[in-house]
Amino acid sequence: MNFPILSTLIFLPLLSSLFIFLSRDKKNNNSIYISLFSSIATFLLSLFLWYSLDNNSAEFQFVEEKSWINNYIKFKLGVDGISILFIVLTTFITPICIISCINSIKTRVKEFLIAILILETFMIGVFCSLDLVIFYLFFEAGLIPMFLIIGVWGGPRRVYSAFKFFLFTLLGSVLMLVAIIVIYWLTGTTDITEIYKIKIPKDYQNILWLAFLSSFAVKMPMWPVHTWLPDAHVEAPTAGSVILAAILLKMAGYGFLRFSIPMFPIASEYFTPLIYSLSIIAIIYTSLVALMQDDMKKLIAYSSVAHMGYVTLGIFTLTKQGIEGSIYQMISHGLISAALFLCVGVVYDRLHSRMISSYGGLVSYLPKYSFLFIVFALAALGLPGTSGFLGEFLVLTGAFQKSYLAAMLATFGVVLGAAYMLWLTKRVIFGTINNVEIKNLSDVNKSEIIMLATLAFFVIFFGFYPLPLMETFSVSVNSLIDNYQIALISN
Fold this sequence. Notes:
Blueprint (H helix, E strand, L loop, with lengths): L4 H18 L6 H24 L8 E9 L3 E7 L3 H22 L4 H20 L3 H10 L1 H11 L4 H30 L4 H7 L3 H18 L8 H8 L2 H26 L1 H6 L1 H20 L4 H20 L4 H32 L15 H14 L6 H16 L1 H25 L17 H19 L2 H24 L1
Antiparallel strand pairs: 1-2
Helix pairs in contact: 1-2, 1-4, 2-3, 2-4, 3-4, 3-11, 3-15, 4-5, 4-6, 5-7, 6-7, 7-9, 7-10, 9-11, 10-14, 11-14, 11-15, 13-14, 13-18, 14-15, 14-17, 14-18, 15-16, 15-17, 15-19, 15-20, 16-18, 16-19, 17-18, 17-19
């Protein structure tokens, strides 16, 4: 394919944001239409890319390569069976965020839409990059629009939360930048495919692996550097929380798969017990913390940390089931967490409260909303028949092959997950009515039903029929594991 499809995917949202910036639209209607049309077009283009991908090849496809800085750094793009799914997830979630802002964003709508589209450009760029420097630029550039989304359109403590988010993630990435410079010094290139072939000397692998971990652990987030996430979620507008949970957290998991394991296989093997320990602590500790929350957004935020614990556990089992389960878990969590934050946003727009005590008995007055909320809550706890089940099942299957203790402790986290999600559902949807204003609330409107019903469809569809996703990344995962094992044997 001669058409530069990846560059088009990356820069189409950016071009659309420029059109919105130049438009004279006092009522914001044109801005919404342009952003919605652009995001849907980007999504359709990503579907075409997915359809055109050769699932039987583990090689990077649709590669674009141009010299950038005096031939030292290349603007190199490409996708494989792993990265394409994160691109499709990004382009799918973005139009939903734009639709959600119709109800939730009342001021500076034009600027908000520009920030969302620019952020989409950076997120797609992360998953397409085949050069370390280009990856780093996209990876860090996403901080700027997200910082503005939280800091300008967030809640009462938005400035504190925005700076905490920015400083945590930026400081974590400084060491990764140093590591990239060292890799260039060792190999003479920042081209990811070339580094795979050259291989990093084993004497440097441990320190470089830790440098990348410093960035990915914060972005994931892993315990104990997760404390920025609940604050960011609570203060962010609904669309900001959706993007943060559905996409930004997945960049770190993708980074482990794209960099940590293939570039530093010996270090990955050496530090596996550390990742197991941090993952188990995240699963159990944050699940217990979620049980104690009285704010719906905080509860869902802590549950995200627990679910990301399963992702890191699965990745570093370094088994086919574990890695496939972690990828499936990330895609599934992207859909489910987005839906749960949208559900919180729906009732917050009506009652202006996120406190669980403000609700109760919603099933009597908001039956459509209650049905959809229950679907997503059951998916979040891993009910069979939903996408949330298969990812956790595969991760635990892979974990049992490597460590019975880690697998058993992680299984206990499944019980805790069921506890906090059912406890949340009981207090919000069922029970007695704690607030008389609930009787005056309206059920989901047309735009809300479109968003939530679409997400519910895919959560259930991929719960019963995971084959489209599994076929896409299976060959790439096999190649990752084979190369990892060959690297260990050769050293």
